[in-house]
Amino acid sequence: MTHHKEESLQVLQDIRSIMDRSSRVLSLSGWSGIWAGLVALLATGIAYQKTAAVPFAAGAAISALVDELALLAVLTLIVAVTGAFYFSYRKNKKQGQRTFNAAARKMIISMCIPMLAGGWMCGVFMMNADFGYIVPTMLVVYGLTLINSSKYSISDIRWLGLFEVLLGCIAFLKPEWHLYAWGLGFGVLHIIYGFIMWYKYDRKGA
User: Fold this and answer.
1) Rounded to two decimals, what is the model's pTM?
2) Would you kindly state where each structural domain of the chain is located, as residue ranges?
């Protein structure tokens, strides 16, 4: 009788595990966060050099600088996402899992909606020369996006989102810290998060 109960409990645990894998994206690689953070830090260094080279820029010079920084941000996003996809795909392939399951599609949709809205807001700020709102908005919107998407992924991502929102709120009050806040939020926090994810979920299978 006891053996039968143990088998029943094991079956229930297996069913719960299968349902959890189908409803959540559990195969995000820790190296994805590390890669995204390193790319963001590199972009921060480039942005710092560009802004330091024109400390008293005005008029056309400011417009050109903003365009260059906007292009740098777009390229950073593309490179970071591409690398994150590669590391997650490689991990899934080793584990024999699909990269784009139903949960992954839901997570992408839940992320795209606020990110597109945030991108539109930042574009409006650029057109109106309200540059002081761009970095804080990026951090807050990104943080809220992570929190909103955490229901389709590992719960740890919610903490990263909360720290991003907090950092963005602080950046609204400290315009002179914007570049550092961007590097801390998209660079350092991602690297820390990536190492934690690698230690908790990837280390045993490495």
Assistant:
1) 0.78
2) 26-205
